[in-house]
Every structure is written in structure tokens, then in C-alpha cells.
Amino acid sequence: MVQTGPRNIIKRLQDSYIRSTDGNGSTDHSQEQFLYVGAPGGGATKYRSFM
After folding, report:
1. What secondary structure, in 3-state letters, does 6-51 show?
2. How far is CA 24 from CA 10, 28, 30, 37, 47, in A?
3. Could you tell me which of 48, 39, 40, 46 has the C-alpha nearest to residue 15?
4. What is the maximum alpha-carbon separation in the chain?
5. pTM > 0.85
6. Beta strand 47-50 with 16-19: parallel, antiparallel or unpaired?
7. Angstrom distance (rounded) from CA 37 to CA 44
8. Inter-residue contact 13 to 50 (CB < 8 Å)
9. pLDDT digits over 21-38, tens only?
10. SS3 of 4, please?
11. CA–CA separation, 36 vs 9, rounded Å?
């Protein structure tokens, strides 16, 4: 679980992530509950998150 800090300092407007297995990158992950980072599970899929 990632914490964004005190709510009066950081206001989240938009976040999303991409993964190496999405092919052409057209998959929308902006409504997902979690952000993913790195290459879990042995590195077959790589994730990058954006805020």
C-alpha cells in the first residue's frame, strides 16, 4: 500500500501505469485501484507508474 502523504499537501488529480505486455500501449489503467512499479514475478512484465 502506498501513501500519498497528508491530504492538504498533495492533491491527486490523475494517475495511471503502463506495462510491457500491453502491446501498443492503448490500454487505459487510469481507473485501477493500485499503481504498480518494477518487475514482480521474475521480471516477465515490467511496470511504470505515473502521477
Report:
1. CCCCCCCCCCEEEEHHHCCCCCCCCCCCCCCCECCHHHCCCEEEEC
2. 32, 11, 16, 19, 14
3. 48
4. 38
5. no
6. antiparallel
7. 13
8. no
9. 887 767 888 888 888 888
10. coil
11. 23
Instruction: Compute the distance between CA of residue 23 and CA of residue 13 in angstroms, rounded to an integer.
Output: 26
Number of residues written out for the chain: 51
Joined together, the cell numbers standing for residue 38 give 518494477
Put residue 38 in one of left, alpha, beta given phi > 0 → left and psi -120 to 50 → alpha.
left
Question: What is the tens place of the pLDDT at every residue in 7-22?
Answer: 555 566 788 888 888 8
> Among candidates 31, 38, 1, which has minimal Cα distance to 16?
31
Which three three-digit cell numbers place residue 18?
503502463
